[in-house]
Amino acid sequence: MHSIKDHRIGVEYRIEELVMSAIVLFMLKSDSRNDFNNKSKDLTFVKNYEMIFGMRVPGMDAVNALFERISPEEFEKIHCRLINALIEKRVFHKLRIFKDCFCIAIDGTGVYNWGDNPDDSIRQYALKKESKTGKVSYSSQILEAMLVCRNGLKIPLLSEWIANDGEDYDKQDCELKAFKRLAVKIKKYFPRLPICILADGLYTNIVIMDICKLYGWKFITVFKDGNLPSVWEEVESLLPLSDGSFNRELYTSDSTHRITSKYRWIKNIEYQKHSIEWCECVQESVHHKTNIQTTNRFVFLTNFNINENDIFHIITAGRARWNIEDCFNSLKNRGGSLHHKFNRNCFNAIKNWHNARLLAFMLEEFVKHSSELLVLKKEDSKLTWKELWKRLMSYLTMCCVNEVIVDFDNWSKSPRQVRLE
């Protein structure tokens, strides 16, 4: 945080104290600035907070005032430096779906509904929608890039707001335009990182193909019926031919189901000067006890060179895109307060609050996937992560952490390594 430029005069709190309190607000599942202010009135909580972090607890109005002034790009730089340091230490290498590249899921989601009369400072950035009856409403959306791993670990990388730049525009901003800007930022902050982009059917188009070719990236996109009609026509003409398509079956079983996975793929489909490949997995699951059968079908387009060994990894990676939707669900419904407006009249502050939210989410993901916490979860199978954070909050307001801090200091004197599972 020392790299963030501080333009304030006569300040009471250091930037580190203000930013840390915002991150802790989200980690402790506070619903609003006022909620965290109420928690910080508890003397036991304040003493424990200062003992754990070695910092004072500021009021959230002071944090908001800082977020209105500092550039969101400062947060981006810190976040990406942290991710790059973890990559250099090979923290994520053993968790990759592919041995030679990192999978980054891309998706957009709605964040705020501003109604029909937002503040003028928000209106110029908000997306405008007019209903058939003529009613106008404004909203904010965001596009996220997230590193996804084979164990379900989800690490936020970068955000790009889907927002208009002023009220004078020919066409409103959209997800594909935001993706072009986001791709530039990914290449800027991770220039040498081997990347595979995972995306839904919206991105099955020439835009992602051109960008991935330009930057030397791989891609796997959901291929829905009706997308790229010329490609579907070629796929359907080649599937019946023995020399036009490839097939493979895999039989597996888990504690509840017998699973048959049927794979098909077609190589070297030409589309607007791009060579792409089509793959499909039809998965049939039969319950051991009831014999009830369920069938799921997954279809993707990719620029990978598919073979018998890689088809499983490609389908696995394509399906792993779902992790970013699970992240949105966590941020909206599991304590991330994504829909709560922590600021209503400064778009700059809104971006910074969201950046603090993503830093907290990343720390929470490390906690959830650490070997020690997974052991704790196995011991109490009914303990949810949300309940675990509630218990932590109760502990911070009712008990003194002094003994825990002493034990931790003694424990940490020897070299330690947190392992991700």
Q: How would you describe the overall organization of this protein?
A:
- This protein is 42% helix and 23% strand.
- The chain has 15 helices and ten strands.
- Strands 1, 2, 3, 4, 5, 6, 7, 8, 9 and 10 form a ten-stranded mixed β-sheet that branches.
- A hairpin with a 5-residue loop joins β3 (136-148) and β4.
- It is globular.
- It starts with 14 loop residues before the first helix and ends in a 9-residue tail after the last helix.
- The model has no long low-confidence stretch (mean pLDDT 90).
Uncertain runs with pLDDT below 50, 5 residues or more?
none
Quaternary: single chain
Task: Summarize the biggest pleated sheet.
Answer: 10 strands, mixed
Structural class: alpha+beta
What order do the helices and strands follow?
HHHHHEHEEEHEHEHEEEEHHHHHH
Number of strands: 10
Mean pLDDT: 90
Radius of gyration: 24 Å
Share of helix, binned: 40-55%
Morphology call: globular
Query: What is the straight-line distance between the termini?
Result: 29 Å
Number of helices: 15
The fraction of residues assigned to DSSP E strands is 15-25%
Topology of this structure?
Layout (H helix, E strand, L loop, with lengths): L14 H13 L5 H7 L3 H11 L6 H10 L2 H17 L13 E14 L4 H4 L3 E4 L5 E13 L5 E9 L12 H15 L5 E5 L6 H10 L2 E5 L6 H10 L7 E8 L3 E15 L2 E14 L5 E10 L8 H10 L1 H12 L13 H22 L2 H9 L5 H14 L3 H11 L9
Parallel strand pairs: 1-5, 5-6
Antiparallel strand pairs: 1-3, 2-3, 3-4, 6-10, 7-8, 8-9, 9-10
Helix pairs in contact: 1-4, 1-12, 4-12, 5-12
